[in-house]
Design goal:
Chain lengths: 325, 325
Amino acid sequence: MDAVSLVDRMLAGDRTALARLMTLVEGRAAAVPAIMARLYARVGKAHVIGVTGPPGAGKSTLVDRMAAQLRAQGRKVGIVAVDPSSPFSGGAVLGDRIRMQAHFLDPGVFIRSLSTRGSHGGIPRAARDIVRLLDAFGMDDVIVETVGVGQTELDIMRLADTVIVVLVPEAGDAVQVMKAGLLEIADLFVVNKADREGADRLQQELSQMLTLRPATEWTIPVLRAQAKDDVGTTPVVEALERHRAFVRTHDRRDERERARRAGDVLDILDEELHRRVREGLASDGLASLVESVRAGTMDPYTAATRILADPQALAALLAKEPRHG
Amino acid sequence: MDAVSLVDRMLAGDRTALARLMTLVEGRAAAVPAIMARLYARVGKAHVIGVTGPPGAGKSTLVDRMAAQLRAQGRKVGIVAVDPSSPFSGGAVLGDRIRMQAHFLDPGVFIRSLSTRGSHGGIPRAARDIVRLLDAFGMDDVIVETVGVGQTELDIMRLADTVIVVLVPEAGDAVQVMKAGLLEIADLFVVNKADREGADRLQQELSQMLTLRPATEWTIPVLRAQAKDDVGTTPVVEALERHRAFVRTHDRRDERERARRAGDVLDILDEELHRRVREGLASDGLASLVESVRAGTMDPYTAATRILADPQALAALLAKEPRHG
């Protein structure tokens, strides 16, 4: 079946079509632009919730608890678990997913793990497109959970309307949160495993740090939880609901969506140009230049500069079907 | 001082010039191509050693011990510690660096931490160029240490002539090593913290897994160490020396270097085209197209496809100085 028909079936509620589209998107298939163009009119309704924090903070468990409460309210929930950078925790994540699948044999939930080690920004792009698939499919909330707090994770969090940062006492102090750039993206902090030593101190440090910021219309809550025992989930979901209402009434969501759309154009161009350059460099026209670089008679910077400075060479490089000869 | 003069001073042995060049390279300054072209003839002598593995495996400690032994042999050692994805361990890494700096107030050692959260492949590129700076500076060995085992880390490990994968019993089993793609890149396994429970089992699993591979000329050793107590460092350094001799006699190093050079051309083109597209999209010529995407009247995929399909639009987009109007 062609990709466009798959989109139409997915939009009609076919979960198998949704899963197949996710696989295409995750593999960055050539059909991705056609798929996304077909469903773009249907996206923008879901509230996207990003959940991030250091490994071992109990994010999956918290997401599990939150999803249960959102389902109890009748909201349809999509979950995307991104684990690009820690194959060593792969087992645990997979275990969580299996647990969640069992817990939610429920047409109102769709869970997808994204663990492909892609390169060239592939993971944030795949995550973004999978969020949009879930959005177009009709999920009210889409939770994107990332393991780790590196650049890939920050890129992914840019998708979110509400960002929840989950911390644990042993993960470090508030200064490290600031250093990691989490203060700029957090709409809500959760100090998880709050029965452990240091939880009070971490909560106080975070609250203090937040009072030092210029006043904004949204006050970032610092909540405590023990997700494993389902303690503290309700206040987290309530805070999420307050933030959801806040972003809707303050037009912040529309603003973010506009910025995201513009960013998408850049991303799509980058991805396609990368593909064309990779193919173009292998074409006959540039073979001798690349060969002198391989042989060490020309340095790569000189070679690249030469291509970039020559509009004809650049056009040949970027032609959809590089000319051989 | 201009960048080219800095390169000349660095090549004459000026450590301050080296540090300043590293800062330029880390920030992906506009002068990077000129810097790298100037020193390219001087690179290719150093043996590049990649050390990777999961967080908490004791990599920094092992690198510290190895560097001490290499120094005792009179080899000059550069160390690049890359920590792109775990700001939460930033404190510890910084602490290690300070310890190492104190230990090695020695002109034969140069240590650089690389923790900038760059995007668009910036970290692997900065790491690569810093390795080349250390190489051109005259270091005999350059050790690149990465925290984590994600795509960024695997990209960085491609720089290395010898890859050492450090594991600890609690990091998971051999199957996870395979899943993480570490089996394909490892030239040497070290089971660190070998006094802990599970070390025997991990070592056996790894050895068994390695016997299942087709025979190759290099037999991958699986060594045990307790780097903290400086136990097992000598066998690791001896195995490293055997591998160094192996790659030199089997021409594998030249092959890798040729592939790296060709890969560099692609990387440099990608980086520059990304910059041009970002600027080009902001130019007057494309403002109305981008505006319809922001407003939601055109989807980003259609907009990008339209630009890509029009050679003139593409040429305008990628012109070094985008035309306004």
